[in-house]
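re: that chain from earlier
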Amino acid sequence: MKRCVLVAIAALLLGACGRKAPEAPSVGTSNKNGTSLLADHPAAFVFDSLDDRPVTSEAMHGKPTVIALVTTGDLLGQAQVNYLLAMAKNDGDRINYALVALHPRKEIVIVDAYAKALGVDFPVALADASSTTSEAGPFGAIDAVPTTIVLARDGHIVWKHTGLAKSDEVRAHMRGL
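^ sequence. v structure.
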């Protein structure tokens, strides 16, 4: 019995050491000059808003915009929302903030309860996870949540960050917008 356990442990260790771990998603992707990461044109998006405040590229145009893509079951996403809530409270109407939950329409009650529990006072929307996170999605490939996106006044993507983005990081990429 002891021998079987030792052989199993050795096999696990050899397997773990022999294979390269998959690469983690890129974190903090941006251009130094603040130009778009994806194309020569602004990001175009229309998300399914929970209320009458639209979460679209047209509605966000004209002001710097911060969009957080989250799922309701993710603790880092909750932390990201808390950072953005504090920022939005300080920024007033100078900057657009939006939360996009990668959930189907049938889960609107869950997303609404999530937003209310966290005290989200900026627009919240639902989005189809597969089309929003694909390479062809409005923000290019999204490898994980939370992902925070900063858009310039004209809608070009200035910064895309996978993982928890602290307020000072987000603000650093918003300077001059």
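The longest strand covers residues 65-70.
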